Amino acid sequence: MHLDIANQRLNVARPSALCALFERFLEGGLLPPGHDALLHRLLRETATGPDKLRAGIPDGTVLGHKTGSSDRTADGRRIADNDAGYAVLPDGGTCILAVLVTDSREDDATNAALIARIARLVAQER
């Protein structure tokens, strides 16, 4: 995808589809038990994007997520800056989030702050 950034536009998913996938994953049975546990661990240990979903959720929340970002176009647009996953809140409630920022002319910090703000609003409303 980095050899031809136009190929990055072929990598698409609707936020609702990502949420449905995470919901199905949390219900269990999507993967064999060993693989299920491994994917939970990998998602919860994700180190990328500390300023995205993680920055917007309350302390004590368990977050399993996957970040993603693309290259920028010649005119400076970030094709995609994303974070999607699930949060187990301190009160035991669960929420699933997918925030996909597309064709942004903002800098990376602004995109991340937008993702964090949306996560904060979702966690508060849950």
Describe the structure.
This protein has 126 residues and is α+β, with helices and mostly antiparallel strands. The chain has one domain (5-125): DD-peptidase/beta-lactamase superfamily (Beta-lactamase), CATH 3.40.710.10. It contains 4 helices and 3 strands; from the N terminus they run H-H-H-E-E-E-H. The chain has helices spanning 15-27, 33-44, 53-56, 108-125; strands at residues 62-69, 78-88, 94-104. The chain has a 3-stranded antiparallel sheet, sandwiched between helices. Strand 1 (62-69) and strand 2 (78-88) form a beta hairpin. The longest helix has 18 residues, at 108-125.
Key attributes of the depicted protein:
alpha+beta; Beta-lactamase; 3 strands
Uncertain parts? none
Residues in helices, as a percent range? 25-40%
Q: Looking at CATH, which topology would you report?
A: Beta-lactamase
Question: Sheet with the most strands?
Answer: 3 strands, antiparallel
Précis, in short:
This protein has one domain (5-125): Beta-lactamase. It contains four helices and three strands, in the order H-H-H-E-E-E-H.
